[in-house]
Amino acid sequence: MTTTTAGPGTRSLESLGRVHFIGIGGVGMSAVARIMVARGVPVTGSDAKDLPVMADLAAAGAGISVGYSAGNLGTAQTVVAGSAIRADNPELAAARAAGLPILHRSEALAATMAQDRVVTVAGTHGKSTTTSMIAVLLRGAGLDPSFAIGANVPALGVNAASGTSKVFVAEADESDGSFLNYRPHIAVVTNVEPDHLDYYGTADAVYASFDRFTELLPADGVLVACADDAGALALAGRTAARGNTRVVLYGTAGDAQLRLHDGGPGDVWVDTPAGRYALQLQVPGRHNALNAAAAFAVALELGVAPEAASGALSHFSGASRRFEFKGEGRGVRVYDDYAHHPTEVRAALAAARSVAGNQKVHVLFQPHLFSRTREFAGEFAEALNTADTALVLDIYPAREDPIPGVSSKLIGDHLSSGGRLVSAADAVRAIVAEAAPGDIVLTAGAGDVTAYGPLIVEALAAGAPGG
């Protein structure tokens, strides 16, 4: 097994010295900090609130502070700042005044895995789930990888760990171009669609960024790409045309080297040059079957026996906020999903439909970002119209200021008779009023809509519509 060494501009872990994390409680930041601590790096960190993960990091040996203060830097030699940290943060200002190196989270992660054989998972959708599946599969097959994932994974217990093998599996976020800081040996691309246009500006810029991502692969590297997705397939074609990177396609398409058969959980298998192998999955949906095929392909590339890989996903129950079961009341099951792009919403609703059978599917959707709503309002409505009931909340602005003329009404104008806009105050009562025993309720979006799931379960269990 070869080792991918640090590429141009990638720092070594040893060169960082004592590292201070500003915003250490974030899921991505805590993941990198956790692995650094495990690898013997002196780590300190702070966050505005005392989040549960900070106690875990303190127990592992990190120095943790609640609240931001210039004094928290201590004797730090390198600073890692989370993407949500404001420019006037006192710790960030002090680090700049002291001339300390300030790294993006992705740069810190790149340094952490610089001496490992790196598997990165990129794509507009499915990164967290696919990365989780790869880590779970490799562990189940006896290969103990390091991993860093943008979501908590029940089957792993954590979202990051330093393993005993030289394999490092990492989610690679394209939203701000930071996935270009990594130096993978195996790159997985689940799909490529225009998104994050507030950063990229145009669809062509998104495609060009993924081209640069595959160009990071070394001569003995491999691109594992989904043949069922037009964007990923086109990327694979462009990558293969360069002539210096091997490409492996997976999916149901006829030109896939790993050909997927998806008859639903209990009837999923892949045809490979070595034979046919079943994939034992708990999670529903074609998108999850494709993610599992990608994980299987990576395992084969890493030398895992196909017989060992085929059954290793049987304990994978999903990643946090990826069709996550929240509870049941009055015979109605409630799930939550991070879906915030039309393709993701359609996939989540298809999974819900497969679970609901002949019963109905009701979705409470919260658009995320004004810019994304403006670009994809019609597509969101088209996806939401596949549900029996689609209730749409106001836009969750996240990092954006309002855009004149952009509201959830842009989606509402295209909804079918089963859809309408709903206020935050009326959302729980409205969705519960639609649900009958055997139905599925799905909360979807990347904002605080996730908080509605437990409220809906509580209202259902009370036997009456909630307020």
Can you describe what's shown?
The protein has 467 residues and is of the alpha/beta class. The chain has three domains: 15-104, Rossmann fold (3-Layer(aba) Sandwich), CATH 3.40.50.720; 113-310, 3-Layer(aba) Sandwich (UDP-N-acetylmuramoyl-L-alanine:D-glutamate ligase), CATH 3.40.1190.10; 324-461, Mur ligase, C-terminal domain (Protein-Tyrosine Phosphatase, Chain A, Alpha-Beta Complex). The protein contains 15 helices and 21 strands. The strands form three sheets. Strands 8-7-9-6-10-11-12-13-14-15 form a ten-stranded mixed beta sheet, sandwiched between helices. A six-stranded mixed beta sheet has the order 16-17-21-18-19-20, sandwiched between helices. Helix 3 (90-97) links the parallel strand 4 and strand 5. Residues 1-8 have low confidence and may be disordered.
